[in-house]
Amino acid sequence: MEQKEWFASWFDTSYYHQLYNNRNEDEAKLFISNLLDFLKLDKNAKLLDLACGKGRHAKTLNEFGYDVLGVDLSPNSISIASELKNEHLNFQVHDMREPIHGKTFDAVFNLFTSFGYFDETTDNERVCNAIAKMLNPHGILVIDFMNAKKVIANLVSKEEKTVDYLTFHITRQCDGKHIFKRIQFEDQGEKYDFTERVQALKLNDFQTLLAAEFQILHTFGTFDLKPFDPSISDRLIIIAQRK
Question: What sign does the dihedral 129-127-69-61 (CA atoms) show?
Answer without folding.
Answer: negative
